[in-house]
Amino acid sequence: MIINNTVLFQSAFLLIVIGFSIKMEVFPLHTVCVDANSIAPSPVSALISTSLANVGFIAIFRFFKITTYTPMHDWASHVLFIIGSLSVLYAAIYMIRVKNYKRLVAYSSIEHMGLVAIGIATGGLAWFAVVLHLIYHSFTKSSLFFQLSQLIHMYKTKKLAGVGSCFKLNPLGGLVFLLAFILILGIPPSGMFFTELMLFKTMIEQGLLWLVIVIILLLTIIIWIFTKQLFRILFKNVGKQQLSTIEPSPWYESLPQLILLLFALYLSIQPPDLLISLIQQAVLP
Q1: What residue segments make up the domains of the chain, in order of their start?
Q2: What is the pLDDT of residues 39-80, one digit of tens each?
């Protein structure tokens, strides 16, 4: 009976995680969200990569907490470690060959949610880190998707090869892009740098230094790809003929995105005590 119950529990947990991986944007059903984000209008893409991904996180996290005081805890942790690591690996590999800037940002969501899955499995301080990480990610990624809608309007294409000179055509929009990429890549003073630091610290304390090294190497690849494509969007020279056909977006259309990013930056530098207290209460065992 114990063996049968164990098999049933493991099967149920796997089915739950696989089912909600569509919402959370992690392996194995992450490709659904990549396709949806690349095709959907930018506001819908922002909703998918923030609110819906957070809903998926809550579902998987709540079911995982059930295993905390059971013999199945280590097994469930290994499942999420594998899922999170494969998600980051998949994002790094496919970013190398991506030619669509909306898909590039969509793969970034898979990377971040993969880190969140690893944080769920790690436990301890990592639980606090991943919830705070999701907050920073929601503000930053939504503003980034909204800003991408300006590129689609200006260049009439989603291909990286067809964009360039964004800083010249729309200085404020270029500044928003630059700030968004700094925050989403976890470059200080981005709050994601500190949440990832807390995650890696907890993993090292649990003897997972080898996994930390692998994840950092994959993140290095992702940062390199993002930086390369960012400079293409902002500074690559486009032909005079193409430049004459581009209608720059009004500067004020970038203000809402800038406000979201500045708010995320404020939360990164000085998170309110109330926010910290709410997160601590949410992740208590």
Answers
A1: 10-283
A2: 889 889 999 999 999 999 999 999 999 888 888 999 999 999
